[in-house]
Design goal:
The protein has 420 residues and is of the alpha+beta class. The chain is built from 16 helices and 13 strands. It binds adenosine-5'-diphosphate and magnesium ion.
């Protein structure tokens, strides 16, 4: 039996903490897996930025990409390698480039997900362009912003059609404020969206391949407390609904890794932001949940690299529209959409693979997150984000939360958490 090495690349920007943990846990696992009659080992490298000949072969099997949404050299190199060298990348850079928040609202509203009432309005001002005046004079209709506000009702949110990180997001309470905010919105192309007032729960569902983590989220809390550590904030039916929504979104848009925000009010879960194909993975935001992101990344990337998972060359939306045509009750329809995702992401095969080949991962992870190296990594990330005088306080806070995770995780999985 021959031994092959599969090469995994990390395409990183400011990510500091999870890559160190990912690399170290994999090093300790020292995997040698038998797949399809072959022994497979893994090599992890960080992708560097340099000039390239478009015909220069790429020898990576899989890249975990975290910069495509803003760094074009890496984006184009990855696209080239996907076209020419059969590279598997998460997430699909074409899909990130072309699927804005607006597209995701439209597609999911059409499939029946309860996206709140949403309008798009032309921007207040424009970058100069030779044809701009002629185009606007001929075709731009005058419109009454107040009328849209009256139809939608207040409060509402104004937010960029392609937004992220709360940039340009405003909560608007009145027509006067709507007009003033629009005046100041500059060249942003904006949505107006009905606010889900009085929601009793806000949940982020992170999907990584066929793995899901539901986290209760408090948008009003300071950054380090937004992801909450509470449990049992959804019942089984709700958890299954939120997972099916996330799976539907991710499979529809070809995203392996995405986070879906939903608000609950009066028995309905409203998805409000689910074009987040570079989810926050920092220990400084995720703290207690951080080990989940690291291990979910290890499982999915190793599975994809080991089995030589093929990149879907094209997105295929027709099956979702076919299900829509069947006029099923919503919950059944959503389950049918999600089933497409489970087929595409090979959920069953993935789970078998993890049971068989990654059985040691939980224990190695538990031990790693008790180590000096893990502690140092947390501190390093805190040092990069917090002022010097808060370094000790926050490094200890995040570390303590990870230790709580270790305790809870060990208990749930009947593992040994001692030895820290
Ligand atoms: N329709 C809405 N109802 C209630 N709150 C909202 C709504 N839209 C946005 N928000 C609030 O504004 C925040 C930022 O909006 P979001 O759409 O998530 O933008 P971004 O893509 O920048 O994260 C949300 O996390 C939520 O707290
Ligand atoms: Mg958001």
């Amino acid at each position: 039996m021959t031994t092959e090495t599969r090469k995994i690349g990390l395409s990183l920007g400011a990510d500091l903490c999870w890559p160190i943990c990912y690399e170290e846990i994999l090093r300790q696992l020292d995997l040698e897996i038998e797949v399809d009659g072959q022994r497979v080992r893994f090599d992890v490298q960080r992708i560097t930025i340099e000039p390239y000949n478009i015909r220069q072969p790429c020898d990576y099997d899989l890249i975990i990409d975290r910069v495509t949404h803003w760094y074009h050299t890496s984006r184009e190199w990855i696209k080239k390698a996907m076209l020419m060298d059969g590279l598997y990348t998460y997430n699909n850079p074409w899909s990130i480039q072309s699927m804005e928040k607006q597209t995701t609202y439209c597609a999911m509203a059409h499939l029946g997900l309860p996206v709140p009432e949403t309008w798009m309005v032309p921007p207040k001002s424009y970058e100069h362009h030779d044809d701009l005046d002629t185009t606007l004079q001929q075709y731009a209709q005058m419109f009454d912003l107040g009328q849209i506000g009256r139809e939608m009702g207040y409060p509402m949110f104004m937010k960029p059609y392609d937004g992220g990180a709360w940039k340009g997001v405003s909560r608007i309470e009145s027509e006067e404020q709507l007009r003033a905010t629009y005046e100041e919105s500059g060249t942003y192309l904006m949505h107006l969206q009905q606010s889900i007032e009085g929601f009793d729960r806000f949940v982020r569902c992170i999907g990584l391949g066929p793995q899901f983590l539901l986290v209760s989220y408090d948008p009003a809390a300071p950054l380090h407390d937004r992801y909450q550590m509470t449990r049992d904030f959804v019942n089984d039916d709700e958890a299954s609904l939120l997972r099916d929504m996330t799976m539907t979104i991710n499979a529809f848009f070809g995203w392996d890794f995405n986070s879906c925000e939903s608000l609950h009010r009066d028995g309905v879960w409203y998805p409000i932001d689910f074009a987040n194909a570079c989810p926050d993975s920092q220990v400084t935001s995720l703290h207690y949940h951080f080990p989940w992101i690291v291990t979910a990344n290890i499982r999915w990337s190793i599975f994809c690299a080991a089995t030589r998972r093929r990149m879907k060359r094209n997105l295929n939306w027709q099956p979702y529209y076919d299900i829509l045509d069947r006029d099923l009750p919503f919950r059944e329809r959503l389950a049918a959409y999600a089933a497409i995702g489970h087929r595409e992401m090979e959920t069953e095969r993935f789970e078998e693979f993890c049971d068989r080949h990654l059985a040691d991962l939980d224990q190695v992870t538990l031990e790693f997150f008790a180590s000096d190296q893990a502690r140092e990594t947390v501190r390093k990330k805190v040092a990069a984000l917090f002022p010097e005088h808060e370094l000790d306080e926050f490094a200890n806070l995040f570390w303590d939360r990870i230790q709580s995770w270790r305790h809870d995780f060990a208990e749930q999985h009947a593992l040994q958490a001692d030895g820290s």
